[in-house]
Amino acid sequence: MTTALITGATAGIGAAFARRLARGGRDLVLVARDTARLEAAAADLAKTYGVEVETLTADLATDAGIAAVEDRLRDAERPVDVLVNNAGFGNRGAFLDVPLQAELDMLKVHVEAILRTTVAALPGMRERGRGAVVNVASVAAFLPRGTYGATKAWVVNFTQGIARDLSGSGVRLQALCPGFTRTEFHERAGMGTSDIPSWAWLDVDRVVEESLRDLARGRSLCVPGKRYKAVVALARLLPAGRLGGVSSKAARTYRTD
């Protein structure tokens, strides 16, 4: 039986990946900051799907947290065949309203953690001739939005570049770029969503299904939903800044673990 490691695994897109992969028979390693939530999620998944579920408490805004995940990914006796880098967050407010440390934490989680965990996972996958890495980015990668959009753009370019380098190796990489996705996070964070049109919302399970479908087809970029494919296509055509208002809303999120 193969194993998937998912960061930010206790809610939102990460939790949806955990459910879907467990339903497909994969054992899991769940990574997040909240030990109690991790243990509850693990118990539920193990009971529901009959798979082995391991938990790893780690804050990916810290060197120690990233190192703990790296160590698990490099464990040759317990190989990980699928890595889903989902942990992430956004900072509310305009750039100069956000504390510098919060921006540095974002770089740590969105860039350094993804770089280091991907590097930790790939040698074993390549040696075995199989494996997959899904790095969760955002439609904001294609829209001007300060540090958030810049980090997500980095995720897209990094992932697609490595995918080309590993072409033919049996290892697949994908940058997943969802738009607004319905999860429980908006309510938990007390964020109003009444100004977001109904057409803009994606179902979290459909996001994951589309990601896995495109991954199986060897597509290194997945933008779920026809409407968001159109947004990305438009963003690539228009001058920079024309769609900045859309991306400013997309960044008003919070940590996904």
From TrEMBL:
Residues 2-179 form the Ketoreductase domain. Pfam families: adh_short. SMART domains: PKS_KR. The keyword Protein biosynthesis does not apply. SUPFAM superfamilies: NAD(P)-binding Rossmann-fold domains. It comes from the Bacteria. CDD domains: SDR_c. Keywords: Oxidoreductase. Belongs to the short-chain dehydrogenases/reductases (SDR) family. This is SDR family oxidoreductase.
